[in-house]
Amino acid sequence: KEDDSSTGSSSAGGAKTISLGFSQVGSESGWRSANTTSVKDAAKDAGYNLKFSDAQQKQENQISAIRNFIAQKVDVIAFSPVVVTGWDAVLKEAKAAKIPVVLTDRSVETSDDSLFVTLVGSDFTDEGRRAAKILDKVLTKAGHKGAVKIAQLEGTTGAAPAIERAKGFKEVMDAEHKDWKIVVSQTGDFTRAGGKQVMSAFLQSNPDVNVLFAHNDDMAIGAIQAIEAAGKKPGTDILIVCIDGVKDGFVAMSEGKINAIVECNPLLGPQLMDVVKKVKDGETVERWIKTKESDFMQDQAKAELPNRKY
Ligand code: GZL
C-alpha cells in the first residue's frame, strides 16, 4: 500500500525539499501503528516529501517499495526490515544509485557495512535482559514458590526483535536463574490473534505453565484472552511479562492481568528526520542511535497510564 503524503512545500530559503522513501513493516501491532504515526507526523513537521509504503509484513513488498524509491530518485531511503536477512541485493542497488539508506527500529545482517548508514532503534538484546531481570522482581513480589515454568511467545520468525529478545532473556536466565525453565516457545508473529491462538495451544500441551514471557504487549493481550477462556487468572495463576508499553498493555497491567512491562519506544520519527537531514547533507552520524526506554511494574501502571502517548 503506497501513499505519497508529500508536503510539496520547499523548505525555508528555497532549498530543495528533502524526499524520503519509507518502507514500513506493516500494521501488525499497537507499537507499529504508533511508529507509523510518529514517522508521518515528524516528516510533515520537517516539511519533507514522504513516500510511505506499508509492506503488510511481507519482505518482497519491502524490496519492491525500495526499488520504487530508487526509480523515483528519492534523496534518502529509510525502512524497518521485517526480517534480518535477504537485503544485500536491493541495498546494493540503492548504493549503486547513490541513495543513502537509514534503518529504523529493526536491523539487518549484511556482508557489507556500507549498505546502510545508521540504525535508529532500540537494543532488543538488552530488552530481553531487562525482561528477565524484571521477571525476577515479579516472582519475588508475588511470593512465588516452587518451579518457574515459562511459556515464551516469540515475535515474527527471523525478525531482529524476536531473535535478540529471546537471546537477552536466555543470557540472564542461564547466568542468574538456572532453576527457571522455558518449557514451550513458539512465534505468535507479534499479533493479538497469534498470541491468543498459540497461548491456547500452550495451555493444552503445558497446563502447568506459570509464567508467560511475550515479545510484545499485543501477543500478551491475545494470550490473556486464552488464559481466561481456560478458566485461569492472568497476572495471578500465570505471571506475565512483555515488551513494548502500548496503552492497552498498561490498561491490562492496571487491571492486574500483566505483571510488568519493558518499554520499547516507537516514537522514532523526530530522531529519524534529524538523521535524514544529516545524511542528505553528507554529515557523519553515529552507527546506532539508540532510543531511551524504561521498565514498569504493575504498581506503577495506574499512575503511568495517562502519560502513555501510544
Ligand atoms: C520493536 C518492533 C516490534 C514490536 C512489535 O522495535 O520491531 O515489532 O515490539 C512490533 O510490537 O510488531
UniProtKB/TrEMBL annotation:
The Periplasmic binding protein domain covers which part of the protein? 22-283
Q: What is its main location?
A: other
Q: What is its subcellular localisation?
A: Cell envelope
Asked if the keyword Signal belongs to this entry, the reply reads yes
Annotated CDD domains: PBP1_galactofuranose_YtfQ-like
Q: Does the keyword Nuclease apply?
A: no
Q: Which family would the database say this protein is a member of?
A: Belongs to the bacterial solute-binding protein 2 family.
Q: What is this protein called?
A: ABC transporter substrate-binding protein
Q: Which SUPFAM superfamilies match?
A: Periplasmic binding protein-like I
Q: Which Pfam families match?
A: Peripla_BP_4
What keyword terms does UniProt attach to this protein?
Signal
